[in-house]
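dumping the sequnces here before i forget
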Amino acid sequence: MDYLFIKAVHLIAMMTWMGGLAVLSLTLIRAETEAFPAKALLDLDRYLMTPSMLLTWIMGLVLIVSGDWLPFPAWLISKLVLVFGLSIYHGVVAGHIRRKNKLEEAPIPLIIRKSALYLPVALPVIVLCVSLKPGT
Amino acid sequence: MTDALSEEVTDEIRRLKWMWWAALLEGGTLILLVCVAVPLKHLAGYPVATSIMGPIHGIAFLLYIWLLTRSSTEGGWQGIETFKLFIMATIPFGVLFSERSFRNRIERLALKG
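..and the predicted 3d for all of it:
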C-alpha cells in the first residue's frame, strides 16, 4: 500500500478515536450532575472507538516499518510514550463507563476527573512532534 | 438476586478469559522476540526477524495493557495487583505468572458461580 494512503487511514482513525475519547471523558466528568447515557457511550466505545484505536495502532506501526523510521528518533519516542498514555487513559475511561453501566451509583474518582486534562495536553504535543520532527 | 450475582460472575469470567488470551499473546510474542528474533539478528545476521516480530509484539503489548486497564477499572481490582500484572508483561516468561493468576481467578469464580 502507498505510504501516503496508510498515513491518511492512520489520521482518519486517530481523529475518530480522539473525538470519541473527548466525548467519553467529558461525559464522565459530568456524570454526577447530569443524566448519564451509559448504553450510548458503551456503543460508542465498542463500535467506533475501539476499532479506530486498533486501526490507529496498526497503521502507525505499518508507517514506522514502511517509512524506515528505525531506530526511533527522539520525537517518535516521545510520541509513542504519549500514545501509550492515551491508550491507558482510554482503557481507564472505558472501564468506568462499563462499571457505571452495571452500577449506576459507582462514583467517579477524583483522579479520573483530573486526568481528563491529559487528552487536550497530549494531543497537541503529539501533533507538534509529528509535524515539526524536532531534532531531525 | 442470585441471577444478578451469577450474571456478574459470568461477566467477570468472560473478562478474565479475554485477559488470559491477551496475556498469552503478549507473553508468547515477547518470548519469540527475545529468544528467536533477537538472536537471529545478532548471531545469524537476519535483522528482518526483529523488524517483523517487533511490531507484532508492540501491538500485542498495547492490546494487553489496554485490556488490563479497562478490566481492572471495570472490575475494581486492587492497584497493586494491576501493577504486578503490568510488570510481568515487561519481563520475558512473566506470562507464566499472569497466565496462572488469571486461570486461578477464573477457577475461583467458577466455583463461586
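Chain A has one domain: 3-132.
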